[in-house]
Amino acid sequence: MATWQEIENDAPEFAARFLRLFDVGKHKTMATLRRDGSPRISGTETQFKQGELWLGSMTKAVKAADLLRDGRMALHGPTTDPGEEGSGTWPGEAKLSGRAVEVTDPLVVKAVVGGEPGESHLFRVEIDSAVITRVEEAMLVIESWAPGRGVRVVRRR
């Protein structure tokens, strides 16, 4: 698992492109695991601050309950339709997976969200992979980063 800062240090160009794609819109899609192990999709907002990726949730939200029970999750950034570009290229989409860990330290909560613990849930995301998928010259390009491996690029026709 890695912090966002570790990705920026290890692969700065990849991290910069990831951020441009991931933050093209405020609203992200998050997958969590329900009590029975089936997936749940929820909307969420994220922020990159202090070298970490953070996400929040209202108290008593089902996605928060999912993360408190089992922190495994995936986030998908906003995307555009690949067909909109019309030139055989598409800037792509960014997604990541990892584990959300609740943070309740009052100093950290105040520094990240400006509130007090208990007003909502604050989670720090420990990242196990980050992926950019795009189209370049009619070829699917998948760039992935993982701790200890760095960036790998796969091209498919």
TrEMBL record:
<protein>
    <submittedName>
        <fullName>Pyridoxamine 5'-phosphate oxidase</fullName>
    </submittedName>
</protein>
<dbReference type="InterPro" id="IPR052019">
    <property type="entry name" value="F420H2_bilvrd_red/Heme_oxyg"/>
</dbReference>
<dbReference type="GO" id="GO:0016627">
    <property type="term" value="F:oxidoreductase activity, acting on the CH-CH group of donors"/>
</dbReference>
<dbReference type="InterPro" id="IPR012349">
    <property type="entry name" value="Split_barrel_FMN-bd"/>
</dbReference>
<keyword id="KW-0560">Oxidoreductase</keyword>
<dbReference type="GO" id="GO:0005829">
    <property type="term" value="C:cytosol"/>
</dbReference>
<dbReference type="GO" id="GO:0070967">
    <property type="term" value="F:coenzyme F420 binding"/>
</dbReference>
